[in-house]
Amino acid sequence: MLDLTDIETCYGNARALYRASLHVGAGEVVALMGRNGMGKTTVIRSIMGLTPPNRGTVSFQGRLIHTLSPYKIARMGIGLVPEGRQIFPTLTVRETLLAVAANYTGSPDPYTMERVFAIFPRLKERVNHLGRELSGGEQQMLAIARALMINPSLLLLDEATEGLAPILCREIWQGLKLLKERGMSLLVVDKNIKQLLEISNRCVIMEKGSVVWKDQAPFTRFSDQVKMRYLGV
Questions:
Q1: Residue 126: how many other CB atoms lie within 10 Å
Q2: Which helix (H) or strand (E) holds 117?
Q3: For residue 225, is it within any domain?
Q4: Which of 55, 124, 192, 206 is the most buried (most CB within 10 A)?
């Protein structure tokens, strides 16, 4: 479904990615891991065209997308849940979801407000609350629901549960597990290794802008030594 091949992405004269390659298959959940500053967010931004790669290619469902504008990439069926959530503070939950609702992929069973409320019941309870009135966990649920309302085939999540209360983290992981069961492809960045691996088919670890380690479920090679080498502080 998604293929990144030898991409190199720069911020000005500073190179952030060095020949990074990864892929996400249809219905697959891929965990993207690494310490802070290793290039995970830049991978997400490169896929979405927010920071286009200087070299290499990004293809989605067989079509090259690395030269397209972000809105065109989104309309092809890639939903983004950005780091920091970026919720509209002066729109209610209802208004936020209605503002982006579109079935760009022509899904025969598109996501509606009721369908996303079934995944995150808290949002239904807060449907008339402004974005700024929601807790961090509720804002994250809204960010995921907002991405689902464009009916994507692939969902990108940058720091899915960072800084959230444990009970809200559990609800978000349950929601992502449900999306996986429904066949949605996910590329997920998060620091909660245990929960992330529980829903993932494969994991990819980055270091200094490059992909340096890979494994697949049941992650028999994901040892404490690997965690300390690539993920420890």
A1: 21
A2: helix 113-119
A3: no
A4: 206
- Per-position DSSP letters for 173-196, written without gaps between them: HHHHHHHHHTT-EEEEE-S-HHHH
What is d(CA 78, CA 1) in angstroms, rounded to the nearest whole number?
Answer: 11
According to DSSP, the residues that pair with 213 across neighbouring strands are 205
d(CA 10, CA 27): 30
223 within a domain of the structure (yes/no): no
Residue-wise pLDDT for 30-49, tens only, equals: 999 999 999 999 999 999 99
| Residue 232 covered by a domain | no
Looking up residue 13, the CATH number of its domain turns out to be 3.40.50.300
Q: How do residues 135-194 score in pLDDT, each as one tens digit?
A: 999 999 999 999 999 999 999 999 999 889 999 999 999 999 999 999 999 999 999 999
